[in-house]
From TrEMBL:
Family matches, as InterPro entries: cNMP-bd_dom, cNMP-bd_dom_sf, RmlC-like_jellyroll
Protein name per the record: (raccoon dog) hypothetical protein
Domain Cyclic nucleotide-binding, residue spans: 268-379
Length: 461
C-alpha cells in the first residue's frame, strides 16, 4: 500500500467499524478590512516602480523617498463628527433650549482655533449667541466683524499682508491663516503661526476658520484682508466680535466691582473716596499662594501691598528661647511665636512699601489664599495725594506688639506645653502602676447601640 493511500484506508476503516462521521469542512476565516486604512493608497504604495528590484542605487533611493512621503496617506484621518450641531445652530439663539445651548458649547470646544485662544467660560457664554449663515457659491464673506467657522462647503482665502513677526523672514509672514487674526497674544503663538505658514493652503474646507474677534474701525483695504470667496454653497457659523467685546467688557466690570468691594471692606479703606479706590483698582492683580508659603520674612521689605480675598495668614515674631540638650545644659535658639492672624478683608504692606521699612514680623499663609496685590513699582506711580492718604490711614502690620508681649506669649505657650506633658506623663504612670495599659485588656466590650423602637420606652430618673 502506498503512503498516499494510507490515510484514506484508515478513514474508511474507521467509518466501517465505528461509524465515525467525517470531519466537517471548514473554510478559512474572512479577512476584515480595517476602517483606518485606505487600501487604494496602500495598493499604489506597493506598486511603486523601483521599490522591489532595480539595478540602479539612485532609483532605489528615489523609490524609497517616494514611499516614505506617501506612507502617511494610507491611514484615514479621523473626522470630527459634530452630531446635532447643524440642527441646533440653525435656530436663532433666542429659540434654543438649555440642552441645545449645551450641545453647541460642546461642539465649539472641539475647534482648536477657539480652544487655544479662549477660556472655557468664554466659549460657554459665546455659544449662546452664535448664529448660522448660508452663502451661495461665489459670495464674498467679509470677516472683519466676527469669527467664522465653515461647517459645510469650501472657500478661497484672500491673502493678508501681516506685520513682520520675524525680521529675517518677511515672506513667511505675508500669508497668515485668517483664523488667527486678532488672537495673537504671545510670542509662542506667533512662532506657531509662522511654522504653519510653510504648508498653508489658501483653500478653506470644513471646520476651517477665518476672521477676527477684535472690534476696530477698519478701512476698505483692511476689510478685504479678512474676506473669503465661497467656491460652493457654504454654511458658516459666526461668532460676533461685538458679542465678544461685550463679554470682555462685562467681565472687566464684574472684576472691578469685586475689587472695589474687597478694598471697601478693609478697615483702612472704609472712609476712602470712591475715585481714590478706583485708582487702586486699575493697578490690582489677582494672585494665589499655597498653604505654608512665606510671603515676607521679618527684617525684609515686602514688594507689594496685599488685600486678602479668601484664606488667612499667620503672624510670627522671632524670639530667643532655650532648648534643653542634657541635664543642667541648655542652648539658645531662635523660635517663631504665633502672635495672631490676618483674616479675610484685611490688608498689609502699605507702610513697608511706601516708606521702605522692613517688616517686624513674618507672614506665612495658613491655607490656600487668594489676594489682590499692587506691586511696589505701580504703587510708586500713584499721585502724591493718594499715597499720602494711604500713609495716613494705614498702620504697620501688628506694629502694636512689643518685645514684652512676645515674651509673655512665648512663656504662656511653653507653660501650657510643659503642663500638658506633665499631665500626660502622670496619668500614664498612674494607670501603669495598677497594671492598666491603655489599648490592652482582658475583655473586649462590644457595646451595641439601642434600637430606635426601644428608645421611647426607656425611663430616665
Amino acid at each position: 500500500m502506498s503512503l498516499s493511500s494510507l490515510p484514506a484506508a484508515i478513514l474508511s476503516h474507521m467509518i466501517a467499524i465505528n461509524n465515525v462521521p467525517p470531519p466537517p469542512l471548514r473554510s478559512l476565516p474572512r479577512l476584515k478590512m480595517s476602517k483606518y486604512i485606505d487600501y487604494g493608497q496602500l495598493n499604489a504604495l506597493c506598486h511603486i516602480r523601483g521599490l522591489q528590484s532595480s539595478r540602479s542605487s539612485y532609483s532605489i533611493l528615489t523609490a524609497h523617498n517616494v514611499f516614505i512621503k506617501q506612507y502617511p496617506k494610507i491611514f484615514l484621518q479621523k473626522t470630527h463628527r459634530l452630531s446635532g450641531l447643524f440642527k441646533q445652530e440653525g435656530k436663532r439663539p433666542i429659540y434654543r433650549t438649555l440642552h441645545e445651548h449645551k450641545i453647541v458649547w460642546k461642539m465649539l470646544k472641539t475647534i482648536p482655533d477657539l480652544t487655544c485662544q479662549l477660556p472655557d467660560e468664554h466659549l460657554k457664554t459665546l455659544s449662546k449667541s452664535v448664529i448660522s449663515e448660508t452663502w451661495v457659491k461665489g459670495s464674498t464673506v467679509v470677516g472683519n466683524d466676527g469669527f467664522y467657522i465653515i461647517l459645510k462647503g469650501s472657500a478661497r482665502l484672500q491673502t493678508k499682508a501681516y506685520g513682520n513677526l520675524i525680521e529675517e523672514d518677511e515672506s513667511a509672514a505675508s500669508l497668515i491663516p485668517q483664523s488667527f487674526q486678532g488672537f495673537v497674544v504671545s510670542e509662542g503663538i506667533k512662532n506657531f503661526l509662522l511654522a504653519k505658514v510653510q504648508t498653508h493652503d489658501p483653500t478653506l474646507g470644513q471646520w476651517s476658520t477665518f476672521g477676527t474677534l477684535e472690534v476696530a474701525a477698519q478701512t476698505e483695504s483692511e476689510t478685504k484682508e479678512y474676506s473669503v470667496i465661497t467656491e460652493e454653497d457654504c454654511e458658516i457659523l459666526k461668532i460676533s466680535a461685538k458679542d465678544y467685546a461685550r463679554l470682555k467688557s462685562e467681565k472687566i466690570k464684574l472684576e472691578n466691582k469685586q475689587k472695589v468691594k474687597l478694598i471697601r471692606k478693609c478697615p483702612y479703606y472704609e472712609e476712602w473716596p470712591t475715585l481714590s479706590i478706583y485708582e487702586l483698582v486699575a493697578l490690582i492683580k489677582w494672585k494665589k499662594f499655597p498653604p505654608g508659603h512665606v510671603i515676607v520674612e521679618s527684617g525684609k521689605i515686602i514688594s507689594f501691598v496685599a488685600y486678602i480675598n479668601s484664606g488667612y495668614c499667620n503672624i510670627y515674631r522671632n524670639i530667643v528661647g532655650l532648648t534643653k540638650l542634657e541635664p543642667k545644659k541648655a542652648k539658645k535658639i531662635k523660635k517663631l511665636v504665633c502672635m495672631g492672624k490676618l483674616k479675610e478683608k484685611e490688608s498689609f504692606g502699605e507702610i513697608s512699601v511706601l516708606l521702605q521699612v522692613p517688616f517686624t514680623c513674618t507672614i506665612v499663609t495658613g491655607k490656600e489664599i487668594e489676594m489682590a496685590i499692587i506691586e511696589d513699582k505701580d504703587l510708586f506711580g500713584l499721585d502724591p495725594v493718594t499715597k499720602q492718604l494711604m500713609l495716613h490711614t494705614a498702620k504697620p502690620t501688628f506694629g502694636h506688639l512689643t518685645d514684652e508681649d512676645v515674651k509673655s506669649e512665648y512663656l504662656q505657650r511653653e507653660q501650657k506645653k510643659d503642663w500638658k506633658n506633665f499631665k500626660d506623663k502622670t496619668m500614664k504612670n498612674s494607670l501603669y502602676y495598677n497594671g492598666i495599659i491603655p489599648g490592652f485588656g482582658k475583655w473586649n466590650h462590644y457595646r451595641t447601640s439601642i434600637p430606635r423602637n426601644l428608645k421611647d420606652t426607656l425611663v430616665s430618673y
